């Protein structure tokens, strides 16, 4: 299986999750190609079997230019020129390509999901086989991933081979 992973990250957490997912896919013998959002292809190759889209949660949804700028002011180590939302608007949709979204978000009583919002945006842009995948938790005190989240991401990556069984790949 050939997997394209497009990931936006500000503080590195979402990138680390994406790397762990890619490692899990590779451990199962799949090809995984990881791109930062601002370097991701706008045309998806027809040999891609699965698209994974990862985003941090800012202000209870996907990032905006304003939230990315605020993240930089707060010490973000990465500053993409565009976010996942903008990339979704630019990428040429593939109607039947299986897509799974994932996000990082803080723990707490109310847990908004940028992955859910990315799924909606992907479907709106013509990716009809998009589904919300996983959320990976960031500790609000340390701003780092909670213990066990990278292992959970690795395991999710290992399990993703079942997503494409029996699914047509045509755009």
Automatic annotation (TrEMBL):
Pfam families the record matches = Flavodoxin_1
PROSITE patterns reported for this sequence = FLAVODOXIN_LIKE (PS50902)
Flavodoxin-like domain: residues covered: 3-161
Query: Which one of the record's GO molecular function terms can you name?
Result: FMN binding
Q: This chain belongs to which protein, by name?
A: Flavodoxin
Protein source organism = Raineyella antarctica
């Amino acid at each position: 299986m050939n997997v394209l992973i497009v990931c936006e990250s500000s503080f590195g957490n979402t990138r680390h999750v994406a790397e762990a997912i890619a490692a899990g896919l590779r451990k199962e013998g799949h090809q995984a190609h990881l791109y930062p959002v601002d370097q991701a292809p706008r045309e998806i190759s027809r040999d891609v079997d699965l698209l994974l889209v990862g985003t941090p949660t800012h202000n209870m949804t996907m990032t905006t230019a304003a939230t990315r700028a605020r993240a930089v002011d707060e010490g973000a180590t990465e500053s993409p020129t565009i976010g996942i939302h903008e990339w979704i608007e630019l990428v040429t949709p593939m109607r039947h390509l299986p897509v799974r979204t994932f996000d990082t978000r803080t723990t707490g009583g109310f847990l908004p999901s940028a992955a859910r919002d990315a799924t909606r945006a992907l479907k709106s842009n013509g990716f009809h086989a998009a589904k919300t995948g996983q959320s990976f938790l960031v500790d609000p005190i340390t701003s780092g991933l909670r213990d066990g989240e990278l292992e959970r991401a690795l395991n999710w990556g290992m399990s993703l081979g079942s997503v494409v069984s029996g699914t047509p790949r045509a755009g």
